[in-house]
């Protein structure tokens, strides 16, 4: 149970509106998926990239936008989108997170 508590604490610390938000950090996420936006293409300094936003809510009912990029749009984001009505519990570990337009941008770290 201690491990679960640590993950729940971590998600509270990744909200970009809090004062302790860092430019980039490694986090664990434990939250419920409540909404999935349609995928879209965005222009970055590296060219056009595919992005899909998944809205999560943590145990304190704070919403977090998780922006999925690249292959995660076709893989994980699609699976979550297909089952969004079930209010999936999302558990992600070792995620590289940084703000993207005041939202959480995440990428799995190997």
TrEMBL record:
<protein>
    <recommendedName>
        <fullName>Replication protein A OB domain-containing protein</fullName>
    </recommendedName>
</protein>
<dbReference type="InterPro" id="IPR012340">
    <property type="entry name" value="NA-bd_OB-fold"/>
</dbReference>
<dbReference type="InterPro" id="IPR031657">
    <property type="entry name" value="REPA_OB_2"/>
</dbReference>
<feature type="domain" description="Replication protein A OB">
    <location>
        <begin position="19"/>
        <end position="84"/>
    </location>
</feature>
<keyword id="KW-0238">DNA-binding</keyword>
<dbReference type="GO" id="GO:0003677">
    <property type="term" value="F:DNA binding"/>
</dbReference>
<dbReference type="Pfam" id="PF16900">
    <property type="entry name" value="REPA_OB_2"/>
</dbReference>
């Amino acid at each position: 149970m201690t491990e679960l508590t640590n993950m729940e604490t971590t998600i509270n610390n990744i909200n970009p509106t809090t004062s302790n938000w860092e430019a980039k950090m490694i986090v664990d996420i434990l939250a419920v998926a409540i909404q999935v936006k349609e995928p879209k293409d965005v222009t970055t300094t590296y060219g056009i990239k595919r992005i899909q936003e998944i809205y999560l809510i943590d145990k304190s009912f704070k919403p977090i936008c998780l922006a999925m990029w690249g292959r995660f749009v076709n893989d994980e984001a699609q699976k979550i989108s297909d089952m969004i009505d079930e209010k999936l519990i999302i558990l992600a570990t070792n995620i590289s997170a940084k703000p993207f337009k005041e939202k959480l941008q995440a990428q799995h770290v190997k």
